[in-house]
Amino acid sequence: MEKLRLGVLGCSFHYFKRVAVPLRESLLVEPYAIASRDGAKAAAAAGQWGFSASYASYEALLADPKVDIVYIPLPNHMHLEYIMKAADSGKHILCEKPLCLNAADARSAADYCEKKGVLLMEAFMYRFHPQWRRARALVDCFDIGTVRATHCIFTYNNKDPKNIRNIAAFGGGALFDIGCYAVSSSRLLMGAEPERVVCQAETDPSFGTDILSSAILDYGNGRRSTLTVGTQLYSVQRVDAYGTDGSLSVEVPFNMFGDVPGRLHVANGVGRRTVETEIVDQYQLEFDAFAQAVIDGTPVPTPVEDAVANMAVLDALSASAKSGSWEPVARY
To answer: What pTM did the predictor assign?
Structure first.
């Protein structure tokens, strides 16, 4: 079977560091073209990473009829524009998280792609790792009873003023960059949508971005999630779920290594155990799953509705950080 030809918008360090090498093993996706607003930079990246074509503009790549699917790792504030331009070109789209800067824009992106007849998926790679599929299965079979609380901590230390994660106009800040993972994993483990949220955020006086945010997500019926995300702290990531009959912890929940087994720590009335899952690369799984949906003409494995719902929670968290009060989570 001929592979789908992938076009990458931007010379993304994230793509080169985490995606490029795993895709060499894909039987479904061929990295074909890369674009940058700096043509020389795109050409150099193409030579280094094995792309057949390079372009000096994103629009030129989108105009290439050989491109089947597009990956958008651009800064957050550019997502909506290039989702729509890619859809206009008839390309199926895998877009980095968060899908847009707010839920209304995410809703617009979803509706626009549906109208144009192209698939759109938010690139939450962790959802494809077997450690998370196993975690969800353990919750579904009530191995820890009914989940009543979850907690996520996700932090790193980045004080570079030129980094897009520290530029407010580009959609930077802890909530957008990593809070989206905390919210997504909470919703996944709870199997529901929060009704209201409250959030407290500390803002960097120079960057204008939130650098330490903590929040409570209230799901009603005595079920709550807490989260803390930060961009100027020692790097930590962990997710814990607490049920009526036990607990579950995901050891490296998001930036899971591709060369060691995933590990879950589970405790219940029977005893304590560590569950190991197979060695896989979650980025290859993500791209292959998206490509398979394109090939089969089926819905994407992570529905775009999930991206819209996740963004609605982030909207409410941002509103609460400003108001200092509980804020309802809108439905779109």
So the answer is: 0.96
